[in-house]
Amino acid sequence: MAPTGGTPLPQPDRSEIRIEAVLAALADPVRLDVVRTLAGAPSGIACGELARTVSPSTRTHHLNTLRAAGVISTVAVGTRKISSLRREDLDALFPGLLDGVLAAPR
Q: Which DSSP symbol is given to 11?
């Protein structure tokens, strides 16, 4: 579920999401950790609270990659950016993909 009440950042429409881009985005351990974190937070999480083990510029890169692939949605709310997993879109397009990814051993 995408956060409401803010300005959505650019992201692909559901029809534009491609499996190749999703799999490439999920292949990085930092991005996979972000997805696992967001899966447990349906209302979203502030971007600054995600991937805290990397520098802010690296975090921004990873979040932009996930958003461009259609894996997450980000909304600007005041000075904060809130990201959420596009679970509904991904489940509709690629049934079972996220369940498999999230269930995989770390």
A: -
Q: Tens digit of pLDDT for each residue in 2-36?
A: 455 788 889 999 999 999 999 999 999 999 999 99
**Cα–Cα distances in angstroms (integers) from residue 3 to residues 50, 56, 82, 86, in the given order:** 16, 22, 7, 11
H or E element, residue 42? none
For 3, phi then psi, to 5°, come to -65, 150
E strands, the chain, in order: 7-8, 45-46, 72-77, 80-85
- Give the burial class of 81: count Cβ atoms within 10 A of its Cβ; 0-12 exposed, 13-18 middle, 19 or more buried: buried
